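USER: If only I could read backbone structure tokens as easily as an amino acid sequence. It would mean a lot if you studied the pair and described how this chain folds. Here is the record:
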Amino acid sequence: MSAKRALIVDDSKSARMFLSRILEKYELDVDTTETAELAIDYLGHHRPDVIFMDHLMPGMDGFQALQAIKNNPHTATIPIMMYTSQEGELYLGQARALGAVGVLPKQIKQADVSKVLYQLHLVPDRRTSVQSSFRPLTVDPLDDTAAAAATTGTHAAITDAALRAELAELRHGLMAHIDNQFERLGADLRALVRDAVIHEAPVPLPSAGPRSWGWVVAMLALAAAIATTLLWQHELNLQRASAVGTAALVPAQPPLRTAAPVRANPPTAGAPAAARAEPIIEPVPYGEDPLGGVRFEKVSQLLYRLAAEKYSGVVDIKSFPGRFCLVGNAADGYSPAPDEMLFTKCDAVGNPREGAQRVSLPVANLLGEIRHTTRGALDVQLTAGDAAATTVPYPQVSPDLTAGAWNRAGSTNNRIEIRLR
């Protein structure tokens, strides 16, 4: 009987190596790919017996790849096990709704893999009801010294081999877990710091002396008043949108361009092309996740509104990178140049996020929930836009052009566009 074959799809090299070693102990042939796109190409020419799929990867994420494989009749019957650091009933429900057979943790144990392989009938059940026979001792049981030496030597050999195997598995598992968690936690911390610096207005502090309770109470009252006003304005906008049968985004601050209203039903084929193509535009500050922060809240509000109104169609969310005059280097990172600096002094012109299509876990959970709630009637597509497709032209390069003038155009062009089809 030919050996069974497994495919591992994970962007972490250490995670691929660790899981490969476990699977090879069960005499499985193992193939690996570092992206979901490469896995789709692989399935065009090969048919593995099981697929272990990571969730967060550059480009197509694990849920998108899972959906693509299950929608293809040639690959739909291949069992897919999500292999990720994400846990919880919500994630497990989303994975199974899309066709996965289950979820395994990144800090995986050999017993977990063994159970999965037995359940999928990929390895024979090695358990047996026949009790193995005992062999007689070759030493005199009355000779305490010889018996102790034989027992000690046997136990030492068994313990040493088992300890080495266990330590090797623990070391590889720890490396895979640290590699995966460090990358994700670092990205989340950088995003939180940027949000705190950019979005939170500085609060003036007393110049000297102990902080008085009156000042604290006044600041709390001011914060409560601002929150109440924003909530009232938000509710008023929602009521107005509902009254006219629209589902427009309600920004906390006015965007750079007027957002087009969201229709409760998709435009008809005879509608003007401008009405069908006019997008909702949201600016993205330099260095921020296009679907992070306030933009995530607005997209969530839009998708839940469309799902509640039984909208059927495609929501196309495209991120366009603006090009900035930057100072810095590749090792320490780049930042926008000071406004007064001449454009000719820029260390680089571009956007470090250009070409990056990593989907965060909150966005992946949101899309999975929308797909599950609408039973696939509402399809959300995330794509990368061309940096050359600008909303405002960049200024002509000249000796007296400043970085500030260039970066103002870059900030306008750094955006996401949402279209309904």
